[in-house]
Amino acid sequence: MDVLLVKRAQRRDIEAFVELMEKHKTGLYKVAKSYLRSEEDVADVMQETVLSAYEHIQELKTVSYFKTWITRILINHCKDLLKQQRRCMVSDQLPDRPEEVPKDDREFYRLVGELPEDYRAIFLLFYGEGFHTREIAQILDINENTVKSKLRRGRERLKQVLCY
To answer: Which end of the chain is more exposed for a tag (fewer CB within 10 A), N or C?
Structure first.
């Protein structure tokens, strides 16, 4: 189904593009949330991602990789925003931890929050979005073995948190 929508969107069918965005917005939101704390920042990054995807969807060569492609765009926007904030942020102006996560997901996000930043995205993509390690490696532009080792180390770290 996605393949047909992507092909229609590549022909500038706005309804198809909107349908694609609606279908993937929750997953994209979760990925953005794993990088950013502020709801405003997440909204900004989501908006930039949608705009970038719309402008460049015709460049997507393999339509079956749409989800991977748009997730990569989102992560790049998140990283760009974080770099910009690091340059501007005063150390005592740390963003608040949002409490607006659905109750079912709060424990998951709390546990993932215990992990270093580079582990969080991998855990969210693997457990939250169901990407395979190969796909995560492509999205994050890292070696697949690195993804596997960070999943293993992250599980060990979370096991320590849960057992103590």
So the answer is: C
Rounded to an integer, what is the distance from CA 15 to the centroid of its chain? 24
Q: Quick one: 101 exposed, middle or buried, by C-beta within 10 A (0-12, 13-18, 19+)? A: middle
Give the separation between CA 129 and CA 44, rounded to whole angstroms: 21
Same domain (yes/no): 53, 87: yes
| pLDDT (tens digit per residue) in 129-158 | 888 999 999 988 899 999 999 999 988 888
Work out how many domains the chain is built from and give that number.
2
Cα separation, 10 vs 63, in Å, equals 9
Domain coverage including residue 75: 1-97
pLDDT per residue as tens digits for the range 44-78: 999 999 999 999 999 999 999 999 999 999 999 99
Name the residue with tokens 């990054």: 45
